[in-house]
Amino acid sequence: MACLLLGYASGSWLGALWVCRLAGVDDPRLAGSGNPGFSNVLRLYGRRLAAATLALDAVKGMPALGLAMAFGLPPWAQGVIGLAVLLGHSYPPWHRFRGGKAVASAFGVLLVLTPGVAMCCAVLWALLAWRVRTAAVASLSSAGVAPLASLWLAPDYVLVVTTFTALVLVRHLLNIRRLGRGDEPGL
């Protein structure tokens, strides 16, 4: 239970808000897409602050997951703790339950639980972001490929990874609508 609470609490710490505060720039929730995440920070403030946001959001859940693995918890229990990190990021209580889309946090969780799957998704994300120039397309595609990659690289975690994918897809419903209308902002 302590790992679960630690996962949610650490997940609810939004890297974009801290990076922007420390850099002395405006809250990213007040401009662009209004999302406190990597892509919006990249659009608003550039690569340096976006990279710091990505790094913080990716590593914040690692202590809770490390403890879960050290305690020898089975994959499903590790997945529940990873899901707590993603839910904390998506629905942080101190920000009126308005958080990010959980892509960078999911990357960090996958790096701990299924490093091969995380790296496959990261490579796909980078290629699509570079080619298509739309973070939502890259994120949705990477999330969609994650369960398939886990079938091959981490079969014990397929259900866990599929659950993470479902959350990322739900968090991107507005982006999916904008993509359908053709007015999703590019990178």
Automatic annotation (TrEMBL):
Reactions catalysed according to its record: an acyl phosphate + sn-glycerol 3-phosphate = a 1-acyl-sn-glycero-3-phosphate + phosphate
Membrane-related topology note: Multi-pass membrane protein
GO cellular component: plasma membrane
Organism superkingdom: Bacteria
GO biological process entries: phospholipid biosynthetic process
Listed EC numbers: 2.3.1.275
Pfam families: G3P_acyltransf (PF02660)
Any one GO MF annotation of this record: acyl-phosphate glycerol-3-phosphate acyltransferase activity
Subcellular location: Cell membrane
TM annotation in the entry: 64-87, 107-130, 150-170
Record pathway: Lipid metabolism; phospholipid metabolism
Predominant location category: membrane
Keyword field: Acyltransferase, Cell membrane, Lipid biosynthesis, Lipid metabolism, Membrane, Phospholipid biosynthesis, Phospholipid metabolism, Transferase, Transmembrane, Transmembrane helix
Summary of subunit composition and partner proteins: Probably interacts with PlsX.
Cited function: Catalyzes the transfer of an acyl group from acyl-phosphate (acyl-PO(4)) to glycerol-3-phosphate (G3P) to form lysophosphatidic acid (LPA). This enzyme utilizes acyl-phosphate as fatty acyl donor, but not acyl-CoA or acyl-ACP.
Family assignment from sequence similarity: Belongs to the PlsY family.
Record's protein name: Glycerol-3-phosphate acyltransferase
Originating organism: Billgrantia pellis
